[in-house]
Amino acid sequence: MKPLFEDIVKKRGQHSFVAFEIKENKIDFFWHYHPEYELTLIVNGKGSRLIGDSHEYFESGDLVLIGPNLPHTWVSNGAIKGKCEAIVIQFSVDFIQRFAGLYELADIHKLLSAAKLGISINDASSDKIKELIKCLPSKINIEKITDLIKILDELSRM
Prior knowledge:
The chain is an alpha+beta fold. 28% of the residues lie in helices and 32% in strands.
């Protein structure tokens, strides 16, 4: 099955990047790709995660960083208490390249290079990062940008 193109630029509008919360009764299959990086945290749910040619089980707490143009989808299965919830952050290569020359962000660039095929983050120390991610959709202005950089920095140290 050929993945569908998702236009993140339309979603983003004037903002530098998007960070939003999804709350649905279930997560439906939507095999897609986009030129942006995507960081997805499953807050509540379980099912199958397909990224590129990888097919794995996911559950609440699942955290994945996906590189540009990598086809992906999540599909919920089984009964869960409450709604399926996820936090999705999507940012462009151009956005992160604005910081490319900064020595302090060298580890973030290594992390993003490694994300070309997707990275699953299952470290117990990621609870701090997960809390930052959960708060990001409500952030505005410069705090939204600095918190994204902080999240990526924490992930690069794992």
